[in-house]
Task: structure prediction
Amino acid sequence: MINCIGCGAEVPDIEYPAHADMRTSPGCWSLFSELLDREFSSPEYWPAHQLTVNAYALQHSASNPALHLIALCLRFDLGFSDDRILPVMRRASKAKESLPSVEAPSAPNTVTVLDVCKATDAKEHIAAVERWAKSVWDSWSESHGTIRALTARL
Result:
């Protein structure tokens, strides 16, 4: 076992193709891939998908964190559903080159992909992803003002 270089979770020390644009360990990327497999294979898991992607990307140094933070702001601050979030994200992604740079939090992650992997059914999975994504949003609190102002303009 090793600690993931992105989120700090204790993950298997394995050989596995990891995402080239993210700061992730192969074992963590493998666990994330398992979550994606659940969400794509079973419709009852699908409602968690967008939050899964945003939470993982933000904990693993996505190249443009502002995009993922906008999605979490829309969900947790404004209560938007995925159906309402997606059109805003399309507009934001067209302007991604002009989005402000935001600093990643320095505090360790309290909820990670490992917590979601423990879910035994779709209901637990969705609840775990909600906790994970909310934890990630909360961890970026120093950027909330910037992201809220940006979201208001979209």
Remarks:
- The mean pLDDT is 92.
- The beta strands are 2-3, 10-11.
- The two ends are 43 Å apart (CA to CA).
- Residues 2-153 form one domain.
